[in-house]
Amino acid sequence: MSRTPCPFTGSIVALVTPFRDGEVDYAALDALVDRQIAAGQRGLVPCGSTGESATLSHDEHARVVEAVVRRAAGRLPVIAGTGSNSTAEAIHLTREAEAAGASGALLISPYYNKPTQEGIVAHYRAVAESTSLPLIVYNIPGRTASTIEPSTLARLAEIDNSVAVKDWTGSLDRVMDTIALCGERLAVLSGDDSLTYPMIAMGAVGGISAVANVIPGEMASLTDRALAGHFAEALRLHYAALPVMRACFLETNPIPIKAALALLGLCREDVRLPLTPMSRGPRERLRETLARFGLAVREEAAPR
Questions:
Q1: Residues with Cβ < 8 Å from 59, sequence gap 6 or more?
Q2: Which residues belong to the active site?
Q3: Residue 116 and residue 144 in contact, taking contact as beta carbons nearer than 8 Å
């Protein structure tokens, strides 16, 4: 079997899941999808950690993916978050996403049960064998309590439909090691907005962005310019957006992202427990940062 090249490049938004009165707000979700497409994003990721997948029921998870696929209507690829610490559950979610018409799947490394590197390889191999979708490995030790080592990623690169790794390790050395070991066999996508520019300079092909929920056009332009080799212009855009990137992580993602979207009047701030709405001081810093960036913010967020 020939290898599947990575079909996902550029700025790809990790979508929030908007809620209203405890339920998924599908009207707001449709509007957010349309906004991302109009702003030049290159892909949509529903049901990732930014989408609060950990608190979505299985039925909600399937319906959100279906809703985003339906609204995108082929205008952008939809890469469904289908990760789990249970391999069987990850397989089930990935098959559901494939049936819904998703273009790919993003799978977090198994969390909490802390598999060995061998277990991580076995997990991803089992999921890959269950689907024809291109798969993106998500390496985020801060949420999983385990790190996928570059040597392990080189093994995952041998799986035909394993096409990329989303790296949120915070280590540019680790990114360089991964690219050196994997080459074109496994593309690298930034998982950390503030590192997208330097990672592209080292060979990454784009990023899966939480901040693109708030400033989608700016993140698309930054990434597109860097990928085109226009690094001076991309660097200017990077430093212009950096205060927003920092403000959007003053508290646990996606708390500030949803607060920002509420301040922009795009959806409610509602998050699900154990997450709680953004505290007053950081929210005010966020509001001031968005206003300085030139965004039309409300004095208060939308009602919760």
A1: none
A2: 138, 166
A3: no
